[in-house]
């Protein structure tokens, strides 16, 4: 596996660079290997939960087909003007090198009104340019776009889950050995079971834990559990213990935290503060995609919660 140099995050350092390196069930791998063989790339929508390698696969496809690439993260740039001008111009104009093109639109559910503009662009440029949409929520992609693309749903059945989990272990074992991290094989297997199918979260959790403890032990299973961290975090928020809040923030994935705490509102937040906490979570969840340092954004959210939210007492129903 080719390893990217000088990147701090393991998830980026060990990001797959070819179709062979992307972890997929055999039926998907065979489909994409056939695309690689025929060199014919249809418009595609990759749909499924985060951490399953949708973006990595899109980039690997573009690389294996030697396509000129325009990559857009729609959570950062989703204006209809950008789609109408920049994407349209890229897709319509032939490459100086003679290569065909591909537009990768990550977090495509954020495109909103711009999706309408893409309907015509896909049809007008299909001979010169292919489009790959990556989304966590297929229901937010309009039906006219879905009908113009082949939709690949990254949902696995029982046998596929076992197949993919085995490949996850091989990848994680390779990373840990390459990084010189001592680990317990049984613990790593349990961690994969606990966090499956989010490979990115598995890798990030291993890295975070190894930075603190320099080896992987059974304690990582508690470290990886929001439920165990959550009680500590609520206690720290109630006490306005900012040192503890910052410490616990390193054990939380910002991408999923906002929804997690939202789901716990009725259990831990006083009725009078419920509207306010929803507004705060909404603000910081939106800022998350725009933030240069997402951990700082998360800590800022937690500080605002500590300063402004009334918490339900332990014996309060």
Explain this structure to me?
The chain has 317 residues and is of the alpha/beta class. It has three domains: 39-153, Rossmann fold, CATH 3.40.50; 158-223, Helicase, Ruva Protein, domain 3 (Orthogonal Bundle); 226-308, Up-down Bundle (Zinc Finger, Delta Prime, domain 3). 56% of the residues lie in helices and 10% in strands. It contains 16 helices and seven strands. The strands form two sheets. It has a five-stranded parallel beta sheet. The chain has a two-stranded parallel sheet with strand order 6-7. Strand 2, helix 4 (80-92) and strand 3 (101-106) form a beta-alpha-beta unit. Helix 11 (226-239) packs antiparallel against helix 12 (242-249), helix 11 packs across helix 16 (294-308) and helix 15 (274-290) packs antiparallel against helix 16 (294-308). It is globular and about 65 Å long. The N and C termini lie far apart (54 Å). The model has no long low-confidence stretch (mean pLDDT 88).
Set down the secondary structure blueprint.
Layout: H1 10-13, H2 26-38, E1 44-47, H3 54-64, E2 68-73, H4 80-92, E3 101-106, H5 114-124, E4 129-135, H6 143-147, E5 150-153, H7 158-178, E6 182-183, H8 185-195, H9 199-213, E7 215-216, H10 220-223, H11 226-239, H12 242-249, H13 254-263, H14 265-268, H15 274-290, H16 294-308
Parallel strand pairs: 1-4, 1-5, 2-3, 3-4, 6-7
